[in-house]
Amino acid sequence: MIKTLIWPVAMYACETWTLRKEETDHLKAFEMWLWRKMERVSWSDRKTNEQVLIDVEEKRCFLEAVVKRKKNWIGHVMRGDGLLKLVIEGRMKGKKARGRPTLGMISDLKEGSYVEMKRRAEDGEAWRSWVPRTCMKPEN
User: Fold this and answer.
1) Which residues span the domain enclosing 48?
2) Count of domains in the chain?
């Protein structure tokens, strides 16, 4: 029920999300909140998240699904020849802002350079088998 009714609503436009540490923590907490609500497990029951996941016979995969949708969308854009690709690759004219650059929508998928990500996206098989570091982080 959760994966068919709630996840599509929760993942609306997730392809354009910028996943920082804070957002990934919120998404993990949201997923556990859903499983606990489904099983009617209160926080005062002192059940660990792992016990709840065993009870529902699931594993944490909401964040993986978000990253997969984001990766599929970016791969589609990189292989295409549309305006969005030109906007992503384009350079802004003018003066560079001071301080640390802000995270962009593809920053968490980009491991290394943009050119490497683009090359990987053009090879469909390599793109499908690639798992971003966001999904490989150990859960706390």
Assistant:
1) 1-10+20-60
2) 2
Same domain, 40 and 55: yes
Q: Which two tokens stand for residue 104?
A: 């962009």
Q: Which residue has the tokens 């793109």?
A: 127
- For residue 56, give every residue at least 6 positions away whose Cβ sits within 8 Å of its Cβ, in sequence order, or none: 35, 38, 39
Give the tens place of pLDDT for each residue, 19-66: 888 999 999 999 999 899 888 988 888 888 899 899 888 888 888 889
Is 98 within 8 Å of 9 (Cβ atoms)? no
Cβ atoms of 19 and 67 within 8 Å: the answer is: yes
Q: Which two tokens stand for residue 30?
A: 């949201």
Q: Considering the entire predicted model, what is its pTM?
A: 0.69
